[in-house]
Amino acid sequence: MTDLEKIAPLFAGWEETMIWSCLQGVMGRAVWNQGRTAAAIISGDFSFLAGEPDETVLRRVPGPLLVPGSGGWSRLIEQVHGDRAVRETRYAILKEPDVFDREKLARFAASLPAGYEMREITEELVPVLLAEVWSKDFCSAFESPADCCRRGVGYVALRDGAPVAGAGSYCVYDGGVEIEIDTRPDHRRRGLATACGARLILACLDRGLYPSWDAHDKRSVALAEKLGYHRGQPYTVYWIGRESR
Q1: Is there a cis peptide before residue 64, judged by omega within 30 degrees of 0?
Q2: Percent of the chain having pLDDT more than 90?
Q3: How many CB atoms lie within 10 A of CB 1?
Q4: How confident is the model at residue 244 (pLDDT cuts 50, 70, 90)?
Q5: Alpha carbon distance 169, 211 (integer Å)
Q6: CA of 34: how far to CAs of 6, 56, 200, 201, 243, in Å?
Q7: For the residues of 105-130, what is the DSSP string, one character each?
Q8: What is the pLDDT of residues 205-235, one digit of tens each?
Q9: 190 three-class SS
Q10: Cβ distance 65 to 47 under 8 Å?
């Protein structure tokens, strides 16, 4: 039995693609204590904490976003990090493979305003996206531009040849992707996120992949519901070293 197989029971019941990806050996990494009674899975900005709260495990995760698996983990995070730990709420989105209306999504995908064009994320676009804070997570989890285009799925809206909005793969797992959507601040409120998100979902469905969604705030929830998803339960996260929004 591998180390990942030994800690997998600690994460039983977590409907989280980044956890699945790590346990499948696809992306991310894990740390655990000597007795394997506590473990953390680290993927991108996220660290998921499971099992019995253990300070040695907590101090080995980089943050900045900690997801406690229990109230005990929450108390330990607050004790160890103090005022640096800012408690926030995220919203799970249900994973329902058969809820999508392809015709509706196609209309959204075709709804770009005049002056914009949609393009799939290609190898030459990856360095451009990585260079911008708002777009880097469309492809930052991958080893190279070629790896991003081979394993990930993504689309961007361009204005005058420059990416200004997009939807990409925050991570991938066996059977799907975790969606990342964002728009450059000066191009928001024009329907670009809706169009890019719809195009990405359609591409995933065509490839037999599930487009998983996790909402960081209620605006993200509203966009997810507009595209066909249903809201799940809110859950607690801690941002380390950042002021609350």
Answers
A1: yes
A2: 97
A3: 6
A4: very low
A5: 9
A6: 12, 10, 42, 41, 34
A7: HHHHHT-PPTTEEEEE--TTTHHHHH
A8: 999 999 999 999 999 999 999 999 999 999 9
A9: coil
A10: yes
